[in-house]
From TrEMBL:
Heme c binds at residues 59, 62-63, 98. GO terms for molecular function: electron transfer activity; heme binding; iron ion binding. It comes from Heyndrickxia coagulans (Weizmannia coagulans). It comes from the Bacteria. InterPro entries: Cyt_c-like_dom, Cyt_c-like_dom_sf, Cyt_c_BACSU-c550-type, Cytochro_C551, Cytochrome_c550/c551-like. The keyword Metal-binding applies. One of its GO terms (cellular component) is membrane. The lineage of its organism: Bacteria, Bacillati, Bacillota, Bacilli, Bacillales. It holds the Pfam family Cytochrome_CBB3. This is Cytochrome c. Binds 1 heme c group covalently per subunit.
Length: 119
């Protein structure tokens, strides 16, 4: 009897962990972009192209609403670690789990410049 309870409890934990993993994976994929190419000549533009608004729309789901890190790393002081050119390279080409092309063209440049000032 005791062994059956232990097996049943272990099975519940495994099912719960599997369900949690699926939910987290789905949330991560949904949060990090829709995967469709942008229209408008390679630009994803948010009202006026403001870098902070762009970052909020395209980066905060993975990097946090204050850039404190979440699925992706903390970006609050990224400018003290990487140059604007290096940041732009990561935005355009991706790195690790970050997909490439979430921002393109002028929008990518604006966000890279804005992030490079975060020291």
């Amino acid at each position: 009897m005791e062994e059956e309870c232990a097996q049943e409890g272990g099975l519940r934990v495994k099912k719960w962990c599997a369900a949690l993993a699926v939910v987290l994976l789905a949330a991560g994929l949904a949060a990090c972009g829709n995967g469709s190419p942008s229209s408008g000549g390679g630009k994803n533009t948010a009202s006026g192209g403001d870098a902070e608004k762009l970052a909020d729309q395209k980066c905060s789901a993975c990097h946090g609403d204050q850039l404190q890190g979440n699925v992706g790393p903390n970006l609050q002081h990224i400018g003290s670690k990487f140059s604007e050119k290096q940041i732009l390279n990561v935005i355009e080409n991706g790195k690790g789990d970050m997909p490439k092309g979430l921002l393109k063209g002028d929008d990518a440049q604006k966000v890279a410049k804005w992030l490079s000032k975060k020291k």
